[in-house]
Write a structure and sequence with these properties.
Length: about 160
């Protein structure tokens, strides 16, 4: 029979865990993790904690071990998950940034996601993701510029 790792919590960590466990604005997953650690610090077994919190036994063991290894930081944030690397975005992100910052579209003051996507042969969602990731907002400029082909304007 395997024995769960013992959890020792300092007073300051205990205060933080209690605040998280009671917090109304704390995400539910952090509330559950804090409750698991507080019960583990009382010396309860994983089975008892799982039954009391109506959660899975393996989940209790996972958060107990993660707290034992990394402390509060181990339960505060989720670990990065695997997944495919964004190869398509990496391939075209440089061009999107270059066009957005260095070039102007024909007969317009700035690029829109649709016009830039059409010019580069990609979709507007890709352009939007790259803009958001790099903090680019070509539609927000300090001064108002009138498009050269704007209707109703005469020189």
């Amino acid at each position: 029979m395997r024995i769960a790792r013992s959890i020792i919590v300092s007073d300051s960590d205990r205060q933080t865990l209690r605040r998280w466990a009671r917090g109304r604005s704390t995400p539910a997953r952090v509330v559950l993790r804090a409750k698991i650690i507080l019960l583990a610090a009382e010396g309860k077994q994983n089975k008892q904690i799982a039954a009391e919190l109506n959660t899975h036994l393996l989940l209790v063991g996972q958060w107990r071990n993660r707290f034992a290894d990394n402390g509060l930081a181990g339960i505060e944030k989720d670990l990065r998950r695997g997944g495919r690397k964004p190869a398509a975005r990496d391939a075209i992100a440089g061009k999107i940034i270059e066009y957005t910052t260095q070039r102007k579209p024909a007969s317009a003051t700035h690029w829109s996601t649709r016009t830039l996507a059409k010019a580069l042969g990609t979709n507007r969602a890709m352009v939007n993701r790259v803009w958001r990731a790099n903090g680019l907002k070509p539609h927000l400029i300090r001064t108002f510029k009138v498009s050269p082909g704007a209707p109703g304007l005469r020189s």
